[in-house]
Design a protein that fits this description.
Strand order of the largest sheet: 2-1-3-4-5-6
Oligomer: single chain
Number of helices: 7
Radius of gyration: 22 Å
Shape: elongated
Mean pLDDT: 86
Length: 176
């Protein structure tokens, strides 16, 4: 039973579609160094990173740029983005999330409350890549099936080794 869930630890590599605006971004470089298949597209929303095999999409924005350019135009872009992508995340980056940055994040959350958009604050490109890859890996079909299998095995082992379960078995054997 131990070998029924994927036990081997192979390196996970996936396809990533990024907007051409991110072609020279550090995130693109990090993903390519990790040997992920990075493709660029002009037809996706500016600043977006899409993991098609996981059905998950991220739109990246720097909080300071957002404060400079205004939230109204960005909100229109976000609305278009979440209407296209079912599992969508806004990744707001700032070196330091101070009161002004938190205020922007809360206004966006309030505006899109009830939608399929989740807002995630981050600090640097390495953190962004780690977050995106973790979420994409967990939601990819083979990984999700493996995680579900491991959870079922763990549940079965917990029940099997439970003192309450042993007590109930002993009680049942005394009643028979």
């Amino acid at each position: 039973m131990a070998g029924s869930c994927g036990q081997e630890q192979t390196r996970w590599i996936t396809t990533v579609i990024m907007s051409t605006a991110l072609q020279d971004h550090e995130i693109s470089t990090i993903l390519q160094r990790q040997q992920h298949r990075v493709r660029y597209s002009e037809s996706v929303e500016t600043g977006s990173v899409i993991f098609p095999l996981s059905g998950i999409a991220f739109i990246l924005s720097d909080t300071q740029d957002l404060l400079r350019t205004g939230e109204e135009e960005f909100s229109k872009r976000l609305q278009k983005f979440i209407s296209i992508h079912r599992n969508s995340f806004l990744v707001l980056s700032a070196a330091l999330h101070g009161p002004e940055e938190w205020s922007v994040m809360f206004r966006i959350q309030r505006r899109f409350l009830g939608s399929n958009l989740r807002v995630i604050p981050v600090h640097n490109p390495a953190e962004i890549v780690k977050l995106m890859l973790t979420m994409a890996k967990i939601t990819s079909k083979p990984q999700a099936d493996d995680t579900r299998c491991k959870m079922e095995m763990t549940k079965a082992q917990i029940i099997e080794k439970s003192p309450v379960w042993k007590m109930l078995q002993e009680y049942q054997s005394h009643c028979n």
